[in-house]
Fold:
Amino acid sequence: MGRFPVNNKSFIKILSANSLSKLGDSMHELVFLLLTISIVNNDFKLIGIIYFIKFIPYLLFGFLGGHLADNYNNKILMLFSDFSRAIITFLLCFLTYFNMINLLLLGAIAFCMTLLRIVFQPCFQSTIPIIVEKKDLASANSFMQISEEIGTIIGPSLAGILITHMNQSIVFALDACTYLISFIFIATFTVTRNRSNIQNKIISFKFLIGDTVQGIKNIFNDGQLLITIIISGFCILFVSSIIRFIFPIYLKTNFTSDTKIIGFALSTIALGTVIGALLYNKIWHTSSPKKLLFFWSAYGASLLMITAFPSQTWVITIAFIIGLIGAWVDICLVTNIQMLSTNENIGKNFSVFSTLANTGEASSGLIASFTIAMTSVLFCVNFFSALVIIIPLIMLFTKKWGASRSFTHKNKPTVTY
Structure:
């Protein structure tokens, strides 16, 4: 793996903040789902409504976070977001403990938490290139990926233990504490390279709209950045459909004698992601839009192999490979957006991508269920995987790339022909 920026105290602090937040988020998601199910008495339509409310902020305010990240102080915005999420989560803990929570309050809390995430995430992604040298970006992104996956693995298990031996409110209290500790880490890191585009004025709606439109124009004017964001958003739609919905259904349908394989397979994907992140810089010495398209196609190929043999050993092996290649996709994708962006538009670029990605993930369940109803699970796996393979390959071999920007992980960014 690439060199860890061990002497970069700011990076270590923001990595620690991200790790704790991800751990808290993964606990929160599980308990929030269980709480929602208990409140609506297993009415899946109402569950769908609550989760749609969680998604609405991306439709209404998806570009707000990018505008704020590019024009205002990222550190202050992240502090505001973390502190606000801590307060809201403590409120949820209080309401749950005293059995005062209802569907309306749950929807309002879900809406606010998503809105604050919209503010936090572009600021967080925009901060990394400021505190980390360009040659260390891929390494930094690898460690971020590892920390997030570890949180994803530990969080649900820890939440399950706490719920079993205590109650749901304890999990929300612990989640709120992770936001407060993250707040402390962020408050104490320093930015050594300041940006020249920081605004000191009150947010203007006219400025917001104009800045967002200009940011989208800039993406369309940069063919490689456009492909990086648009193709990735397209692929995420079908990859999410397979991994989150179709893959578990396939396992449950074909291995009914042992339902534990579903959890084991998903855990194996997470393990593969950690190993993939560790190996990224050792195997791949550069990141580029072309390489990202290749990774997406390889990702699709690994998903296509799920149904090749009806064997548990085969499924677990493929699950590990899916996680491995998925880590390479994530690291290469984030590194490309960071390196293809300027200080003036990096936040907006991540907001555009985040909006597309979250729209894809939110739509993936609907698309998967509709397609399965019309065809079959096997058809969905094969068809969706084929799309993830073919579309990036078409772009890879038909686009006139000209000077393809390739970013080495050991020296300065270079241009290759």
Remarks:
- The chain is about 80% helix and 0% strand.
